[in-house]
Specification:
It is built from nine helices and ten strands. By secondary structure, it is α/β, with parallel strands linked by helices. It folds into two domains: 206 residues, Rossmann fold, CATH 3.40.50; 68 residues, no CATH class. α5 packs parallel to α6 and α5 runs parallel beside α7. The longest helix is centred in the middle third of the chain and has 29 residues. It is globular. The relative contact order is 0.13. The C terminus is likely disordered.
Length: 291
């Protein structure tokens, strides 16, 4: 029986794909422990894994959402790097105390990669998104200029933080470029290989396992089949951009002619299960009158 530590960021889109993996390992008798912020405790413990909360840091679900608000990917990367100063030593302490055999870290969790390398432990990266390099992004000239402008605006802060991490953690700091996504000897990607765009980063260490879906941790979630008397259109911007209400209102106005009801679902921070389903903040419906 092995002891496995999952190192995950406080982001639903990065945590959800690994929940079935944690559950399967726990059901097979492995000892599974997962690190995250306390708001994610319910769904982690529902898998049968043990949970341990990070100490308070700048890294929160709200901070990630804010960093992504303008589409500048350099901002969340800088946030992860800054949080690593506190989270890498914490993760190393947990690994030492627990005597873990394997570290499974998210593609954003640089502190998990540093901790596993510093302690000489085997590491596995989980990637819940497509793996892009600049060529595979297929950007227009305008999009390229915008992205480079955003990147260079953050470059001094990124270089400064990289220097701090290198000075503190030495050879444990990841040497592969680009820094993100985090990668190791095995990289599990939760999509099909046929859907993955060509990328120079893909090699034999990448294992494409397809979507990871398991309804058990969400057994008490909102009953989507509760209003089947009319056609339903489901709208979602995920858990990062769900506060962009203008998008939903535009869809409500535009889709009313096509459907009897248009529904929007979003999960308020810290709410799960029936608390989520019954939340007036969560469920917004525009019931359109018949044409």
């Amino acid at each position: 029986m092995s002891k496995i530590l999952f190192v995950t960021p406080p982001a639903h889109g990065h945590l959800n794909p690994v929940l079935p993996l944690m559950q399967e390992l726990a059901q097979r008798g492995e000892q599974v422990l997962c690190l995250n912020n306390d708001e994610f405790r319910p769904q982690i413990e529902a898998t049968g894994a043990r949970f341990r909360a990070y100490p308070p840091t700048i890294l929160t679900a709200a901070a990630i959402s804010q960093a992504l608000a303008d589409g500048n990917l350099s901002r969340p990367h800088l946030l992860m790097m800054r949080a690593t100063e506190a989270l890498a030593p914490f993760t190393m302490d947990v690994l030492t105390q627990e005597g873990c055999d394997l570290v499974v870290f998210d593609s954003l969790a640089i502190w998990g990669k540093i901790a596993s390398k510093a302690l000489g432990l085997k590491g596995v990266a989980t990637i819940g998104h497509f793996v892009f390099d600049l060529a595979s992004m297929n950007l227009s000239r305008r999009e390229t200029v915008t992205m480079m402008t955003q990147f260079f605006a953050q470059l001094p802060a990124l270089l400064s933080q990289r220097r701090r991490l290198r000075q503190r953690f030495g050879q444990a700091y990841p040497s592969k470029q680009p820094l993100f996504p985090m990668r190791d000897q095995l990289n599990i990607v939760f999509t099909a290989r046929e859907l993955q765009p060509k990328s120079s980063l893909i090699d034999d260490t990448f294992l494409f396992v397809g979507p990871s879906i398991n309804p058990q941790p969400h057994a008490d979630d909102f009953p989507l089949d509760a209003r089947q008397q009319k056609p339903i259109v489901y709208l979602s911007l995920g858990t990062v951009h769900h506060t962009h209400t203008a998008f939903y209102h535009t869809c409500f106005r535009g889709l009313c002619r096509l459907s009897g009801a248009v529904h929007s679902l979003r999960r308020p921070a810290g709410q799960h299960g029936r608390a989520w389903a019954n939340s007036s903040q969560l469920y917004r419906a525009a019931v359109c009158p018949p044409a």
